[in-house]
């Protein structure tokens, strides 16, 4: 039975994944994060209260939903405890949280190394979120990482000691201050005590649920074009936010996955460095930023903005096998008189629909635009596709046509109910 749905980012992040996740959450018994860490920033508004999650799955807000941090996630214990405490202050009991014993822990040296590596990079500065994500995944693959099951056991002490000795050699080479084992151990063993009750075997848990026919929602963080394999390397994150990550980051086999929804905005944004074919470095770009409130939830950085790029969205649809798209901010783009959409790239004098993450290709492509009528008016009350003005329908139809993927959700406003589900 295919009772697993995946929601993932289909562009460079910040597509409003939280909105569709929130819409689908009530219908699911499990909400699972499968990749990344607190580099993510997902906002949800419930009963007028705003929540910004970096680590916790947004499904945590439903008492009847079990919220899981899967094995593919990297966890900063300090940040996680803060998020748990924030929820408790707002009256949530947080009895529905489960953390994979296999998830890796982000420790202070990962954050220092993230900052240091970024500082010494002369070319290709990545503009990371400086949350220690890359260095934590490096340790995982290098096999010196500390998993949650180690973190909450006696083994933590010796593993931490060995890691700190090691990192001190590296930090010395970078002329950075030495880490003190005793200080870090004292602080983090307290975090371990707090988190221990949540740590468990989430793989068995999920499969018991699958057997019972219970619905599971995998909540993607980051996005397809930030994928370590399929994104614009090296300007990517250090995990697989694409569909493969949902499998390896949870232990759920492919045959259980039904719908795979990719989330995009009706325009484009990117934060951090790297190629961005439809970026607008002019007043139109500034206007999109202002109208769409394009400032980071995690780092508060202004986001780079531009027109919708259907060449890269089409690629996301292909690599993820998307069964549907969710298009957010249709209301925002509808405020322009004329809207442009990139329907092909021109490279070395030839038009192409084939996306490549090769940096030379991306840096030398020019977008081929089609123009659409804007001025959609107030569409925030529309709940059916047919309620939308024809020019807005035309815009959505073109997205479907070029990506060969149905648009199943449309965001028509910032509010929770302002969504069309088809
Ligand atoms: P959500 O889940 C947008 C970007 C960073 C940087 C690159 C690498 O909110 O969509 P990292 O700290 O991951 O090593 O940084 O990836 N990045 C994101 N951009 N939204 C995100 O998450 C992001 N997570 C990472 O800006 O360019
Ligand atoms: Mg974000």
Structural features, described:
With 422 residues, the chain is of the alpha/beta class. Helix content is 34%, strand content 21%. The protein has 14 helices and 20 strands. The strands form 5 sheets. Strands 9-7-5-2-10-1-11-15-19-20 form a 10-stranded mixed beta sheet, with helices on both faces. Strand 3 and strand 4 form a beta hairpin. Helix 3 crosses helix 4. The protein starts with a strand and ends with a strand. The mean pLDDT is 96. Bound molecules: 6-O-phosphoryl inosine monophosphate (IMO) and magnesium ion. The site of 6-O-phosphoryl inosine monophosphate (IMO) has 21 residues, from helix 4.
Quickly describe the structure.
This protein has 422 residues and is an alpha/beta fold. It contains 14 helices and 20 strands. The structure holds 6-O-phosphoryl inosine monophosphate and magnesium ion.
Give me some keywords for this one.
four-stranded mixed beta sheet; 422 residues; alpha/beta; Adenylosuccinate Synthetase, Chain A, domain 1; binds 6-O-phosphoryl inosine monophosphate; globular; 3 domains; single chain; Adenylosuccinate Synthetase, Chain A, domain 3; binds magnesium ion; ten-stranded mixed beta sheet; Adenylosuccinate Synthetase, subunit A, domain 2; 14 helices
- In total, the number of strands is 20
Q: Helix/strand/pairing class, anyone?
A: alpha/beta
**Which architecture of the largest domain per CATH?**
3-Layer(aba) Sandwich
Query: CATH superfamily assignment of the largest domain?
Result: Adenylosuccinate Synthetase, subunit A, domain 1
Q: Summarize the main sheet.
A: 10 strands, mixed
Largest sheet: spatial strand order: 9-7-5-2-10-1-11-15-19-20
- Low-confidence segments: none
Please write the CATH class name of the largest domain: Alpha Beta
Helix content: 25-40%
The chain-level mean pLDDT equals: 96
As for the number of domains, it is: 3
Strand content bin: 15-25%
Shape: globular
What Rg do the Cα atoms give? 22 Å
């Amino acid at each position: 039975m295919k009772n697993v749905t995946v929601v993932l980012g289909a562009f460079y992040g910040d597509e409003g994944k939280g909105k569709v996740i929130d819409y689908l959450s009530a219908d699911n018994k499990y909400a699972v994060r499968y990749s990344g860490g607190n580099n993510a920033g997902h906002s949800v508004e419930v009963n007028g209260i705003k929540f910004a999650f970096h680590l916790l799955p947004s499904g945590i807000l439903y008492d009847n939903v079990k919220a899981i941090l899967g094995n593919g996630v990297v966890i900063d214990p300090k940040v996680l405890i803060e998020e748990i405490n924030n929820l408790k202050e707002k009256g949530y009991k947080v009895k529905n949280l489960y953390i994979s014993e296999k998830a890796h822990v982000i420790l202070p040296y990962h954050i220092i190394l993230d900052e240091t590596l970024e500082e010494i990079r002369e070319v290709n500065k990545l503009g990371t979120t400086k949350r220690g994500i890359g260095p934590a995944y490096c340790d995982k693959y290098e096999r010196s990482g500390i998993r949650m099951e180690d973190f909450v056991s006696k083994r933590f002490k010796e593993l931490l000691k060995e890691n700190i000795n090691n990192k001190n050699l590296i930090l010395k080479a970078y002329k950075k201050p030495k880490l003190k084992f005793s200080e870090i151990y004292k602080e983090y063993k307290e975090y371990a005590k707090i988190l221990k009750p949540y740590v468990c075997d989430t793989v068995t848990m999920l499969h018991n649920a699958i057997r019972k026919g219970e619905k599971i929602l995998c909540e993607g963080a980051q996005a397809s074009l930030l994928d370590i394999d399929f994104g614009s390397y090296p300007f990517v994150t250090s995990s697989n936010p694409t569909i493969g990550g949902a499998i390896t980051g949870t232990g759920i086999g492919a045959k259980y996955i039904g719908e795979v929804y990719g989330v995009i905005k009706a325009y484009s944004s990117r934060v951090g460095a790297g190629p961005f074919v439809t970026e607008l470095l002019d007043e139109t770009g500034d206007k999109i930023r202002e109208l769409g409130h394009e400032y980071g939830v995690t780092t508060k950085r202004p986001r780079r903005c531009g027109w919708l790029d259907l060449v890269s969205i089409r690629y996301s649809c292909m690599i993820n096998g998307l069964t549907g798209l969710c298009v957010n901010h249709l209301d925002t783009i509808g405020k322009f008189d004329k809207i442009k959409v990139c329907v092909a790239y021109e490279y070395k004098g030839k038009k192409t629909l084939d996306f490549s993450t090769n940096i030379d290709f991306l840096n030398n492509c020019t977008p081929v635009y089609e123009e659409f009528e804007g001025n959609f008016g107030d569409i925030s009350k529309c709940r059916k596709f047919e309620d939308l003005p024809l020019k807005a329908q035309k815009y959505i139809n073109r997205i479907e046509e070029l990506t060969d993927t149905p648009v199943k959700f449309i965001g028509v406003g910032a509010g929770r109910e302002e969504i069309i589900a088809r």
